[in-house]
Please model this.
Amino acid sequence: MGAAATSRGWGLGLATAPVHLCHNQAMRSLKASVLALVAAGLLTISCGGIVDPSKNQMESFSGEVTPQGFSSHSFRVDKTGEISIKITALAPLNNVPLGVIWAQADSSGNCVSVIQSSVANLNLPAISGQIFQGNYCVLVYDLGILTAPETYTVLVSHP
Model:
């Protein structure tokens, strides 16, 4: 019996060791994968997960843009979800397009890096996308069209 075991076990006297070792490795790998998946799920739940856009908060900012000028507003987001930005009021002209920039902000509220920019018209979505926890700002600026100051209200929907 010793000779038969040696010939099937690659001369090591181990008839089933390679199959058994592969099975153990596969089981360890499977267990590690399952634990990683469970940990990720618990982390997502503990962080509040992604917020349903219908549960977003609405922040409204008002300001004035002068010819060749801009105005900025900072805000903080505490959860992952979706953002949308639109201009909801313009005066004295209500049909003038303005530029809108969504940017990352530093802890002081200063805009430091552009995430997305767009041309905005009254009551039409200008910017939308996924947003993560952090400090942000929105800038409203003249596209080179204004000849007089324009007041505006911009609505930011975020988690």
In short: The two ends are 71 Å apart (CA to CA). The helical segments are 2-8, 17-46.
